[in-house]
Amino acid sequence: MECMYVIFTTFNKRHRRNYNAKHSFMGKTTLFILSIMLLVSCGSYNSIDTFYEAHKNDNQVTAIRVPHFMISLLSNISPEINALIGNTKDLRYMQFPLATPAKADFLNKQMNGITGNSFIEIFRKNDDLKRSVISVRERKNSVKEILIFNNNTKSGSFLYFNGDFDPVKVREMAKNNQFEKLTESLIKEYNPNTPAINN
Questions:
Q1: pLDDT 10s digits, 144-191
Q2: What is the model's pTM?
Q3: How far is CA 8 from CA 1, 17, 21, 85, 165, in A?
Q4: d(Cα 74, Cα 86) in Å, to the nearest integer?
Q5: 12-41 pLDDT, tens digit each
Q6: Count helices and strands in the chain by DSSP H and E runs
Q7: Are 147 and 119 in contact (CB under 8 A)?
Q8: In 3D, which of 135, 99, 132 has the Cα closest to residue 114?
Q9: CA distance 102 to 104
Q10: Are 93 and 64 in contact (CB under 8 A)?
Q11: Residues sharing a CB contact under 8 Å with residue 50, sequence separation 6 or more, in sequence order
Q12: Cys staple from 151: which of 86, 92, 93, 156, with CB 3.0 to 4.6 Å?
C-alpha cells in the first residue's frame, strides 16, 4: 500500500510538472502570437491607405483618389506620364496646411514612418523642416509603388501611385520634374480654382 502511495505521489508530481510546463508553453506561444499581431497592426497603420483614411476628413485637407476610369484622362500631359498612367491601379493625392513648425515636423515623421525600410529613396532634399522626397517600393525588376512627398513648411503634400512601373522611366520622370507637372494637372482637373503649389 505504501508503495502504491509513493507511485501515485510521484506520478501526480510528474503530471503536475508536465501540466505546468504545457500551459507555460501555451502561454508563451499565445503571448508571442499576440505580439506579432500587434506589430502587424502597427505596421499597417503606417501605410498610405490607413493614413489617407485617417486624415481625408481633416480640416482644410485636400484629398483626391482618382477613380480608375478617370486615370487615363491625365495621360495626355506628356508621353512619359502616358506610359506611367497606363500601368497605374491606384492614384492618390493629399495636401495639408501646416500652420506651425510642429505640424510640419509631425508630417515629416508620418511620411518617414510610411516609407520606413520598405521603400527606397531615389531623391531626397532636406532644408531644415522642408522636404522633397521621392521613394519607390520595388519587387523584382519593376516598381510597384511610388510616393512623392513635399513639405515647404506652409503646406505639405504627397502623390502616390500603385501599379507596375519601369524603374528607368520612374527615375527619368523624377529627374525631369514630371511628377510635379502631374501634380499640378491633377489639382486643376479636380479643382480649377486651386493655384499651383510652389515647393
A1: 999 999 999 999 999 999 999 988 888 888 888 888 877 877 777 766
A2: 0.70
A3: 11, 14, 20, 76, 71
A4: 10
A5: 555 555 545 555 555 555 544 444 444 443
A6: 7, 6
A7: yes
A8: 135
A9: 5
A10: yes
A11: 44
A12: 156
C-alpha count within 13 angstroms, C-beta hemisphere, residue 53: 6
pLDDT in tens, 112-147: 999 887 899 988 999 999 999 999 999 888 899 999
To which residue does cell 502511495 refer? 5
Q: Which range is least confidently modeled, 23-32, 74-83, 96-105, 106-115?
A: 23-32
Answer for the pair 150, 86: CB distance below 8 angstroms, yes or no.
no
Q: Measuring CA to CA, how many Å separate 57 from each of 64, 89, 105, 153, 177? A: 11, 23, 20, 21, 29
DSSP string, 46-85: SSHHHHHHHHTTSTT-EEEEE-HHHHGGGTTS-HHHHHHH
Q: Which three cell numbers stand for residue 168?
A: 528607368
Q: Supply the pLDDT for residue 16.
A: 55
